[in-house]
Amino acid sequence: MKQRNMSIIVLSLLIALVLIVTGCSGKAENTVAVSEEPDALTTASIVESSAAFISAAGSNGTWIIAVLQDITFDQEIVVEGEFIPKDEPYRKLALYTQDENRTVTDRFTLTAPRMTIRSENTRIQSGTFRGDILVEANSFHLVDATVEGNISFSSQEYLSSFSADENSTVTGETAVP
Predict the structure, then answer these.
(1) Rounded to whole angstroms, how far apart are CA atoms 39 and 74?
(2) pLDDT in tens, 69-114
(3) What is the pLDDT of residues 130-172, one digit of tens each?
(4) Contact 68, 107 (CB under 8 A)
(5) Is a pLDDT exceeding 90 seen at residue 1?
(6) Measuring CA to CA, which residue among 121, 133, 117 is closest to residue 91?
(7) Are 119 and 157 spatial neighbours (Cβ–Cβ below 8 Å)?
(8) DSSP symbols for 77-105
(9) Structural contact between residues 104 and 67, judged by C-beta atoms closer than 8 angstroms
(10) Is there a smaller number of Cβ atoms within 10 Å at the N or the C end of the chain?
(11) Considering only CA atoms, which of 117, 120, 121 is closest in space to residue 152?
């Protein structure tokens, strides 16, 4: 329980930092204010359930989805919508927690039969996706992540814009069918 509380504190600090860096906050505070109309372009969605993840991944969701535990789906996940938090399209699936030094402290697994990526410049970072991925957008990235399955691209253009760092692995095929 202490580890989970620390993870929540670290993620809260990360959210506050994002708000400060993106210029959405005039001053740093110890809490994150929640308005009646949340700004989906600058705030993170911290998720611990499949329903919360599906909502955050949709076109009215958030640009960053921070997962706090393993989540399993029995249906396809669709990541869609255009989010521009820093002057360019960007989506991040943060499958990890980190400490104040940005050191990864825990990694999580998303499991689904398939995940379709329709948001440009989507990144899966520091965790595992178990299932197949279909990419229908440019600039899909893996950063310190594992895909236990295949990654299919709906066009050669999308495959050509794909990147994975040296700490990432894909256990299946990466191709245009």
Answers:
(1) 30
(2) 999 999 999 999 999 988 899 999 999 999 999 999 999 999 999 9
(3) 999 999 999 999 999 999 999 999 999 999 999 999 999 999 9
(4) no
(5) no
(6) 121
(7) no
(8) EEE-----TTSS--EEEE-EEE-TT--EE
(9) no
(10) N
(11) 117
Contact of 156 with 137, CB cutoff 8 Å = no
Residue 124 makes CB contacts below 8 A (sequence gap 6+) with 93, 95, 141, 142, 143, 145, 147
CA separation for the pair 14, 105 (Å, rounded) = 14
Give the span between the Cα atoms of 170 and 16, in whole angstroms.
Answer: 33
Q: In this structure, what token pair is assigned to residue 87?
A: 């002057």
Look-up of token digits 């521009």: 84
pTM for this prediction: 0.75
Type of residue found at 136: E
pLDDT computed for residue 85 by the predictor? 86
Residue holding tokens 């029995």? 74
- Reported as a pLDDT band with limits 50, 70 and 90, residue 15 is low
**Secondary structure (3-state) at 5:** helix
Give the strand order in the sheet containing 64-67.
44-47, 64-67, 91-94, 122-125, 141-143, 163-164
For residue 159, what are its two tokens? 């495959």
Task: Dump the DSSP string for 34-70.
Answer: --SS--TTT-EEEE-SHHHHHHHHSTTS-SEEEE-S-
Q: Please name which of 119, 46, 40, 123 lies closest in space to residue 85, comparing C-alpha atoms.
A: 40
